[in-house]
Amino acid sequence: MKILVLNCGSSSVKFRFFDTIEQNVLASGMVESIGKSQSTFTFHNNINRKKKKYLSLENHRDAIDLILTTLSCSTSGVVKEISDIDAVGHRVVHGGETFTKSVLINEAVYRKIKACMQFAPLHNPPNIEGIKASLTLIPYARQVAVFDTAFHQTIEPHAYIYALPYKWYKKRKIRRYGFHGTSHNYVAHRAAQILGTSINKLKIITCHLGNGASITAVEGGKSVDTSMGFTPLEGLVMGTRCGDIDSAIPLYIIRKENIECSEMDTILNKQSGLAGITQGDSDLRTIERKAKSGSERHILALHIFTHRVKKYIGSYAAVMGGVDVIVFTAGIGENSSLVRSMCCEGLEFLGISIDEDKNMQNSTCISNGNTDVLVIPTNEEHAIVQEVEQVIINENQYVKGVV
Question: Which residues are catalytic?
Fold first, then answer.
């Protein structure tokens, strides 16, 4: 089966094209700066042909059309016809309470995904644009939606209900949803594979640390708590997002600075976090470099970031009554030995201890204590492909009357 995975951002489309029979990636790439004067298209195929183009693309449909044309072109394409694409897997950030698993997209599902836009007004609209374009451009391919929030639908009410008027939950669906679910699910299962242990027997804390960051408690293969909440703003300190704060602070600043709610939303999401502390630097690599040079503000940012991670590790160990495995993943988690070391420092009472030689080498297993500490590269595209395959298998079984 040939499956195209699409991840549509506000002005970008990341893609990866898989052949599940041969178990390899046929092509991958990205379209950036959609809707701007000059867009960038990067394409790599499995025979080491690379191309980079600069052109003007007005919308996501134009971008996806370009991707499809390139996949099937005679010089650098990897299929003879676009019709060779069997299915498309779409990353959708927010599925609300409606979607607890990946689903085949039909008209009713499409409408329900659109209804979830209210929960993720920055993320879901481009996801929907990608779905709409694919339904038009590849109408014969089966389209599957894979939701960031779905993995966290196993969280119990006592962990997802906020201490707010309950009517807000009933009427407005205000609750903890959690995000990065595809990544947390993937690395938790990879950890079990690496350790040769059934995931049903493990208590795992997965730390997805990138520009956007979240932590999840995974018990018996199920998410039981997670740091992001109603939106991706809650939880850890992130590149430009503040994470957990006293909820009275925005109200206080709105009154004192006489600013609009929309401006406060921008401040909390795009001008806070590591960038807010350092006055502009959100990239952890830059922060580490400047911290080593003695910048007090950047040293402070590192300590704030890792302190918050450490707090969540401790709290989730308490929630699960222990922890067997800590997993670090995503850009920072996979590449920063300093962050991993600082996050685990002082957690020896939980059996967490780092072998610094292995840590510096970015080894898979970096622990020398009772609790395993693993560095596992996330592969959300591969996880999406697995979800797409399973949805199609289930659909075929249903049609044939097997289930």
Answer: 148
Give the CA radius of gyration of the chain. Answer: 22
Which stretches of 116-233 are DSSP H helices? Answer: 124-137, 157-160, 166-172, 181-195
Q: What is the pLDDT of residues 33-89, one digit of tens each?
A: 888 888 899 998 887 677 788 888 888 999 999 999 988 887 778 888 888 899 999
- CB-hemisphere CA count at 13 Å for 191? 34
46 and 24 Cβ atoms separated by less than 8 Å = yes
Give this prediction's pTM.
0.90
2-147 is classed in which CATH architecture?
A: 2-Layer Sandwich (3.30)
Report yes or no: 386 and 338 within 8 Å, Cβ to Cβ: no
Q: What is the residue type of 66?
A: L
Contact assessment for residue 241 and residue 269, using Cβ atoms and an 8 Å cutoff = yes
* Cα gap 388→381, rounded to integer Å: 10
- What are the residue boundaries of the structural domains of the chain, listed by start? 2-147, 198-380
In degrees and rounded to multiples of 5, residue 240 shows phi and psi of: -130, 0
Kind and range of the H or E run holding 174: none
The domain 198-380 having CATH identifier 3.40.80.10: the answer here is no
The pair of structure tokens assigned to 243 is 């994470």
Give the Cα separation of 191 and 59 in Å (integer). Answer: 39
Burial letters 166-180, b for 16+ CB under 10 A, else e: eeeeeeeebbbbbbb
Same fold, 2-147 and 198-380: yes
Closest CA to 113 of 134, 99, 130, 133: 99
What is the average per-residue pLDDT within 144-155? Answer: 94
Report yes or no: 29 and 42 within 8 Å, Cβ to Cβ.
yes
Other beta carbons less than 10 A from residue 352's beta carbon = 25
Q: Parallel, antiparallel, or unpaired for β 222-226 and 213-219?
A: antiparallel
